[in-house]
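Hi Y.,

Following your request, here is the sequence exactly as I used it, all 372 residues.
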Amino acid sequence: MTKNIPLKDRFPVVDSGANIFKPLFFRLSDQSQKIKLDALISVTPGIRIFDQIESQVIELLKIRNPAKPLTDEQKQVALSALHDPGSDLYGVWVYYPWSAYLLHILDEQEFFELRTSRNKYKITADEQILLARKKTGIIGLSVGQAIAITMTIERLFGEVRLADFDDLELSNLNRLRAGLHDLGTSKVLIAAREIAEIDPFIKVVPYFEGITASNIDDFLTLEGNLDVLVEECDSMDIKIFSRLKAREYGIPVVMDTNDRGMLDIERFDLEPDRPILHGLIEHLPMKDLDQLKNLSNQEKLPYLAPMVGIEKISERLRNSVPEIGKTITTWPQLASSVVLGSAMVADTCRRIFLNEFTKSGRFYLDFEEIIS
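Below is the corresponding structure, written out as tokens. Let me know if you'd prefer a different format.
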């Protein structure tokens, strides 16, 4: 009789692939890589192959010749060349271990050209190349996930460092884009995999333990300083500590607060002596990381109030603050605010990268005021 034995004990549990987030690349013009891919296919049951290389080649031809439509003859000539000596050799095959998907895509240079082609003139070709060299760090992968994905889609960096110690919980799904099958999975892993599925050529550096005193310097400076730090964590101690360190290294900090469209920008790259959080907590003791972490909720309030701009927050958020620890576990957030915030942060970071925006300050894009 098995009716009282839990399903997870009766059937194999699906392995999410531990912390695997990097795809594998196979370029079949190299015989050794062809052998490796053949071996992978032979030992991987359920592998799914997606080969749309022909449509990508035709689309690449179109964007390179936009003045007039391609003729059928031109398309056939392109595809004939593709099949000689063999279309499998063209481009690159990308394998995603966590889904067992094998994709045939353009290789990096042509992929980059085609994927960013609809950005042109809003982002020039030279600017796009410049952006591809930028490094962004994101702390906090609830709100930060939406920012990471938006910046990936727009191709605003060539490297992104992701930090969060949390796993996905069901209550996160009111604002974080994931599926029920992702419950219990690291938030960093969810974001890293989605980035790889959009653009496998972007470098992702994960910090599964979140930000700590022992890894903050590595996070900010590994193989070159970050060009911008996006801070979206819930921990008051990390909010303060990360800014002190960002100022030390001259790295600008951008934060979205998810309320009234408030965007906070600190240009430590241009103002190396700028007080953190615009001087709003300068009168408070800057305790060390462990001391800040262990403050009671009451002791944290003098720090948190100016951080979020308590005098300017929405009425509904203000009414929720006394309920924290009573009827709710933490402050409420909405998906619509997260999406708005991700757009504002992405746009601001792009303009910082391109030297089009040099201000520090707090800025509001409040839909209830604008659309009323």
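The chain has a mean pLDDT of 92.

Thanks again,
Q.
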